[in-house]
Amino acid sequence: MSGIGFSVVICAYTERRWDDVHAAVASVRAQLHAPEEIIVVVDHNPALYARLRESLTGVTVVENREGRGLSGGKNTGVAVARGDVVAFLDDDAVAAPGWLEAFARHYDDPAVAGVGGLTLPMWPGSTPSNVLVSAPVPETTGARPGWFPEEFDWTVGCTYRGMRPGPIRNLMGGNASFRREMFPVAGGFSTGIGRGFHKRPLGCEETEFCIRLRQRSPRSELVFDDEAVIWHRVPPERARFSYFRERCYAEGLSKALVTQSVGSQDGLASERAHALKTLPRGAMKGVGDAFRGEPAGIGRAGAITVGLAWTAWGYGVGLGAARRRARQARRARRDQGAMATRGRPGGEGVV
């Protein structure tokens, strides 16, 4: 299906990523499989919207028509898109020239509803975005902090150790594509999950969407292809241990919302396997690396332990909060029912 048309959606929200957004657009323009259109959705920032409309010639720049946040921005982009497939790229990422080409070859199979790719981190010290505007492939990707375990690269929006090419439960939102026809089936991205105006670095809007898509279209497949490569920038503040802990806790909160929406069996299936298999292996490898003369291995083993604990803590807190909200909603419905009964003729005093 070499003639498949792609609409590439990039969601932007802050002037601080001015060069990043332009680098992302430049990388899409340089694709071997040229996109049908590039759509930049600006999240409730009129000044940025006006500037990008002027600077990004040949690009469709629109304002987020839904509530503030990434889910609303993605839904707006989908509503505008005309391509057969809608691909999403983070505003602080650049795509390798073969990105869309790798996606396209999977859509020859009508069972494939979505394809995601390999997201590699650009750590502090990597090629700056103002250079990537004219040369979208980074010459250097910086230096990973020695304590940072690859098993937790998801905390910075990147592919983590343990992911394997082939069928997958959910795609990562910043490097994903879906047939446009699947969005009415799944119902779009939930605005109650994921990044918004909250201070906490929440996520999982794409996880919940993918699970819901598969629940409503069980024969559809989602595929991870490690040849569909992008590089995602990690700013210095996100390479710190304090952010790592905060992001893990926020992920637990988000996972609680996901399980309330799609059920714990589907909502935690991949997480259970990751926690029971990949993370213990990673911790043991870190300890082994330390014994082999690499002190940072102990740091990685410790980070894996802390990351798992903080994520579980967040999940427990989020699950408790969700259950309290559910009880309050049931109580409110009962109260409304009782009031309605009292208001009917002969209903006075009935409880």
From TrEMBL:
Protein origin, superkingdom: Bacteria
Domain Glycosyltransferase 2-like, first and last residues per copy: 7-117
Signal peptide: none
InterPro entries in UniProt: Glyco_trans_2-like, Glycosyltransf_2, Nucleotide-diphossugar_trans
Database matches in Gene3D superfamilies: Spore Coat Polysaccharide Biosynthesis Protein SpsA, Chain A
Residue intervals passing through the bilayer: none
Residue ranges of the region described as Disordered: 328-351
Family matches, as Pfam families: Glycos_transf_2 (PF00535)
Name the UniProt record assigns to this protein: Glycosyltransferase 2-like domain-containing protein
